[in-house]
Amino acid sequence: MADTPPAVLVLHNDERESSELQALLEKNIHCKTSVTWSGLEALKLLQSGHFDVLVTDDYAPDLYIGDLIERAAALPFPPQVLVFGEDSAIAAVGRYQSRGLCTILPKQRPSTLLQAITTGSVWKRPQTSASMRNLVGGLPQAPNAKQVN
């Protein structure tokens, strides 16, 4: 039986870049993807337990990225958090990576993001939120979220 692709939430405050990330994931991984620009909205969506992976830039306009990482890690079904950022992300969120709360991936190498997600090394876990999602239906959507199936 083939593995179910992960459900991915993309958080990025730049609409062009978030659309590019969404297209990259959809084309190469064929996963369900939702997009938001708001860290607070991302937390609300993550609380549903329907997402395996959160791909985020190292900045959200309405929530410090460190708070987002810590609050996501405290959820009953925490997603794997991938910070897809510039070299400055290492300085901004490196301490969260050293605590195992996120993985920092270089923005200039999208292949590392695809590899991290497709190998499942960052998101597969027993009784994943994906198995819960199959019981209750599709991904929740925020009013401004975009979804690709």
Question: What's the topology here?
Answer:
Blueprint: E1 8-11, H1 15-29, E2 33-36, H2 39-46, E3 53-56, H3 65-73, E4 80-85, H4 88-98, E5 103-106, H5 110-118, H6 129-136, E6 146-148
Parallel strand pairs: 1-2, 1-3, 3-4, 4-5
Antiparallel strand pairs: 2-6
Helix pairs in contact: 2-3
Describe the oligomeric state of these chains in a short phrase.
single chain
CATH architecture: 3-Layer(aba) Sandwich
CATH topology (fold) name: Rossmann fold
Strand-residue fraction? 15-25%
Number of strands: 6
Number of helices: 6
Can you characterise this structure?
By secondary structure, the chain is an alpha/beta fold. The protein has a single domain, classed as Response regulator (Rossmann fold, 3-Layer(aba) Sandwich). The protein is built from 6 helices and 6 strands, in the order E-H-E-H-E-H-E-H-E-H-H-E. The protein has helices at 15-29, 39-46, 65-73, 88-98, 110-118, 129-136, and strands spanning 8-11, 33-36, 53-56, 80-85, 103-106, 146-148. It has a 6-stranded mixed sheet with strand order 5-4-3-1-2-6, sandwiched between helices. Helix 2 (39-46) packs parallel to helix 3 (65-73). The longest helix is centred in the N-terminal third of the chain and has 15 residues, at 15-29. It is globular and about 30 Å long. It starts with 7 loop residues before the first strand and ends with a strand. The relative contact order is 0.21. Mean pLDDT is 81; it is low at 125-138.
